[in-house]
Specification:
The protein is an alpha+beta fold. It has two helices and two strands. Helix 1 crosses helix 2.
């Protein structure tokens, strides 16, 4: 079963992701999936219930990114 989600990414980071995914000849989806997997393995934190969310600031440039994670990626 695949998981599909939509996230936001800053325009600056999207351009970096496009550059490096093209440089390494991999899809943007694969690049972002690997980055998320790396970050999840690198840092483990205890779950904090009722923690307030922080949202991106108004006036900043963001793009929506649709991401599909395959079964072996989560």
């Amino acid at each position: 079963m695949n998981i599909e989600t939509t996230t936001c990414i800053s325009v600056e980071h999207l351009e970096l992701m496009k550059f490096y995914s093209k440089h390494y000849n991999i899809s943007q989806r694969t690049f972002l999936s690997g980055l998320v997997s790396f970050a999840a393995q690198l840092e483990k934190e205890d779950v904090k219930s009722f923690k307030q969310l922080s949202y991106r600031k108004k006036g900043t440039n963001w793009k929506r990114f649709h991401l599909v994670l395959f079964e072996d990626e989560y």
